[in-house]
Design brief:
Protein name: Transmembrane channel-like protein
Order of helices and strands: HHHHHHHHHHHHHH
Main location: membrane
Strand content: under 5%
Shape: elongated
Number of helices: 14
Low-confidence stretches: 140-149, 151-160, 374-382
Mean pLDDT: 77
Radius of gyration: 35 Å
GO cellular component, one term: plasma membrane
GO molecular function: mechanosensitive monoatomic ion channel activity
Keywords: Membrane, Transmembrane, Transmembrane helix
Length: about 375
Amino acid sequence: MSRSFGESYRVGSTSGVHAITVFCSWDYKVTQRWATRLQHDNIRTQLKELLAEWQSRQHRRSACGQLRRVAVLGLVWLLCLGTTLGCTLAVYTFSELMIKSPVSAEREAVLLLLPLVVCLLNLGGPYLFRILAALERHDSPVLEVYVAICRLFSEKQLKRKGKPEFDIAGNVLELIYGQTLTWLGVLFSPLLPAMQIIKLLLLFYIKKASLMANCQAPRRPWKASHMSTVFISLLCFPSFLGAAVFLCYAVWQVKPSSTCGPFRTLDTMYEAGKVWVRRLEKAGPRVSWLPWIHRYLVEDTFPIYLVSALLLAVIYLNIQVVKGQRKVICLLKEQISNEGEDKIFLINKLQRVYERKERSRAGRTEEAVTPPALLTDGWDAQ
């Protein structure tokens, strides 16, 4: 993720990027026709992205417009959070009813009721969120992905002539959602990553064929490097870390089922590791290093704090390096500006010296051309 940030976001300002893209982007080593066409398309797309970003910065709202927009965004966020909490409470309530219900024919119906509620929430929730997202009216495609938008094709769009646009934001979020479900379910279904790989391969080629045959390019340009950074960031923080926290809580705190499963005789899944270590200790000296690793690297919290401290130190070092690079860039810009002023001063001084020499040369030429009779008449007149 840090490498993606370094590739997509510049250290300094973006002033002069348009000129750099126009005059310095072409690779003159490219000779094949298909490669030149591809490079031409890439430069054109970059220019579209830069111009769209520049236009979005030019259109600024008034104070009243900004306050109105903040109020709308706050209301939308409150509705989204309320909907999410309501769905969570609904799932929790039905799960508690399922656990507490006595063993009978009604229990079978309750067991089917919870998956039905979850499916209904999964089907109806996205449509509600799309309606709320339509009120926000974001202009930036990257911001649309951050707040979980770019929308399904409406009836009005389908009635238009021409091909529909490919929903980039929706497909990105579907990838993140599928990967999150895989990380959440890998503890309970170890073969789930294999199924996910097969599913992604099939969907990739199906969507590629559909994109090339049925869709057109989006009206608003999407910056590929920024979109890749957004995708990796969302995949890291909410998705991977959320799944990791959930799985850690399930392993250390949640009591397994007492009727089925490999952990039914234990209080937590983590105790299975302790039982395995006790067996290894009794197995002999050949595997004595495995209990040592479990005791000093898993149960002891000092290595975790040490790794966290090293990670924070590396992050701090990278931040300071970026700040230093920004300072160096500012100093270089000042140096270039000063050198430009010095050159202008020297050019003006040289121009004045040249004009002075030209005037003196013109004066000597006039004296040399003046006839002697005019000079004599001048002395007589005096």
